[in-house]
Fold each of these.
Amino acid sequence: MEDTTTTTDPVRRWVGDREFRMLIGGELVAASGGGTSTTIDPNTGAELTEVPEADPADMARAVDAALEAQGAWEDLGLKGRTRCFEELAALVREHRDELAMLDAIDCGNPVARMRFDVDLAVEYIEGWPGLAAGINGQVFPASPGNLHYTASRPYGVVGRITAFNHPAMFAITRPLPSLITGNTVVMKPAPQTPLSALRLAELFGQAFPPGVMNVVTGGAAVGDALVTDPRVKRLAFTGSVGTGLTIQRRAAESGVVKNVTLELGGKNAMVVMPDADIDAAVEGAIFGMNFTVCQGQSCGSNSRLLVHRDVAEEFTALLVSRLERFRVGSAYDESVDMGPLVSAAHHERVTRLVESGVSEGAALLTGGERPADVPAGGYYLSPTVFGDVRPEMTIAKEEIFGPVISVMAFDGFDEMVRLANDVEYGLTASVWTRDLDVAHRAAHLLDAGYVWINDSSRHYFGTPFGGTKNSGIGREESADELLTYLESKVVHTRLGDANAAFERLARSRA
Ligand code: NAD
């Protein structure tokens, strides 16, 4: 292998002629059928390298390995599993720059922000053992002379399928609650962005016993093999509504009842009341849209801005002028605000939705085109703001999953609530006002799993994250999530007569 440690070209340095392998049963392996797929650099459109495209047989082998490893992993206990988590945290910290750069190269998210993702992931690795230590059971005073208590056991093998937008962070953090509760995991990362997950497969292989964590790469067919494997009774999915529905159906068609949790899309409303701090709200809108993290490709992004008519003009003008100063460019560049979209296909889809906004009569206030001075061949789109958006327009209803924001003006409180809730999604919402009554009344009425008041986007480990309506089922990143990887049982003990028992014991000893 070429020595690339001194080159300043990140692709040569971190991808070069390195081999990216899956992790199955503790071994780093190619696909058994020899299948590969080419991963593309969205910054330039250039081919990066080949990665394994697994066969369904590889998925079956990964489930075999996970099943075999599960008993010993559970028996290791929380303390033993915590030691493996500590080892993983140290390895991830050591490889921080590499993992962040792989995401910049493979996904197009700015490298500086991806370092933040890796740091956050380390916090999660360190956080889960503490939450797991708080798991306890219950004792029920159901009837005298009986002892009823609950105990819980892991499901066994958990199938984890993830989306493309935070590749390293998802590959690190999404399996953790399954693992800390004594399950073993088979993970399938997104096919657009496999590199950091495959590099992490090596680190997982160093930190955990063989078979505890398995990483298998490929597209929908490989994911389907995991979903329909009757031995995998617990599935957790992060991705789009369409795929989530398919997974629920295919899980049922496996003939086995499965516990499926889904973290899906969003079309999230941020509400700006006339008394809001407008400067802070504009910054909140930009931060909450995740422009600078992943080009708006985030489930939680506030892609619909509902602004009171009295302040709509001032708010929109400030928003547009802030976004027009953004630097869009290669995600390897430390100083860019935004990189490219993840793929040519996704760029085409987002562009089509922008065109639908124009053709359906919204006012394109800024963006919607390829910025000047970006690297040739990359999938760039400038930050885009639409005004005069009406609720029936496609851009007001569909999740765009790109750097496109729609501003809608409202007059009354009830009208605002109706507009905010008039979508199939219910992931997040955000309300900006100085009035406590308005804030909490809105928080109560907005149909979303996570509501911010005078803030956006920030969520902290331990607070349950997840959506209502078609945004999903289940809550993650919290004690609530841990319990979903455990099946509880009640143990009912009939207590006999203690005096008679004691006498029996005394007689037997005499
Ligand atoms: P996607 O649904 O296209 O793919 C997600 C994953 O599912 C990928 O790994 C893909 O290969 C796999 N997959 C596709 N078809 C499958 C099938 N039939 N069986 C099994 N697996 C299959 O989503 P995406 O484009 O990668 O990600 C974008 C979507 O993810 C957006 O809708 C976004 O809102 C959502 N998302 C949600 C959250 C959340 O926490 N709620 C977080 C990130 C992304």
Amino acid sequence: MIVLLGYMGSGKSSLADYLNKNNNLTYCDLDHYIEKKEHKSIPEIFKQKGEIYFRKIENLYLSEILVQNRQDVLALGGGTPCYANNMELINTRNSTSIYLKVDLDELTTRLYQQKSERPLIEPITAESQLKDFIRKHLFEREYYYRQAKHIINVTHLSIEDVASTILHLD
Ligand code: S3P
């Protein structure tokens, strides 16, 4: 299984969807899986049950998906690699983990436009504050992201190019 990881806004879900439509690969999006299982949206889970609960079920459903091993591609949530033993679970399951790396400026631009569905950044109002938040957060998270088997800087790549790079990895 190809496991896509990276910060919020790095294009994990879009890429999984692209690979499904254009390359016939089956995929699972962990956030969507959680929403379906819990009958709630991610913002609702954060609001009603809190982040600790979310991290607990995120770990549970991740293990479930990895054990079932039914899909070709799995798109994680931005925080998934950084909690519990998630990165270890992923890398010991014989999967191809790929970190989709995006530069800070590009992440800030993208996320400033699409922060409403993302509880961790939704309250941040100014773009400069968002940039400071992402810089610090990314610094903490990169330790985990770097444990991926492959790292691709996708900042200036089209989705077609990213898909083709991934399909030609050895
Ligand atoms: C999170 C990222 C989100 C989602 C949740 C927490 C994070 O997924 O899992 O809001 O901690 O970075 P996306 O990366 O798909 O936005």
